[in-house]
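== Folding the chain ==

***
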Amino acid sequence: MTRTATLAGGCFWCIEAAMTELDGVLSATSGYCGGSVADPTYDAVCTGETGHAEAVQIEYDPAVVSYEDLLAVFFTIHDPTTLNRQGPDVGSQYRSAIFTHDEAQREAAERFIADLVAEEAYGGDSIVTEVEPLEEFYEAEAYHQDYYEKNPNDRYCSVYAEPKVQKVREQFATA
C-alpha cells in the first residue's frame, strides 16, 4: 500500500531532488497547491498572485519510510523559519507548508513541529511552516519534473539543490 505526502519548502526542484534520494519514495511530482486559481501555470504562480505554493507530492511506501521520516528530511533541507522565502526565492509561492491528506497527517505534522519548537531546533526562532489540508494538487509543467536529474549542471541546481541532495545522502542514507 502506498501513501501520499505533499510538502512545500521553496523551489520544488530542490524538494523533489532530495526526496527521491530516500528508500521507500516511489515518486516525487512537482506541482502547485494552496491557491485559489484552477490549473495554474508556472508563470502565473511566479507572480505570487494565485496563492499557490510550489510543492512536491510524494508517493511512498510506509513500510520502508514513514511520514515522520519524510518530515525529518523536509525540516532538514529547508529553513522553516523564513516567511515566504528560501534562499534567493522570495514570495508566498516559496512558503514553507505541509499540505495534509488526512487527520493523522495533520496531527503528526503539528506534533513534529511542536517537538522542534520544544527542543529549540532552530535556536528559538519561530517556525512559520503552515499546516493545512490539501484541497487540490496541480502537477507542474513537464519540464519541471525531475529537473535536477535532467539538469545537474544548471547553476541553480548546483548551488541550491545539490547541497540538499548531499545532506540527505549523508544524514539519511540507509545501510
About this structure: The mean pLDDT is 95. The chain has six helices and eight strands. The CA atoms of residues 67 and 105 lie 8 Å apart. Helices lie at 12-19, 42-46, 67-77, 103-118, 147-150, 155-172.
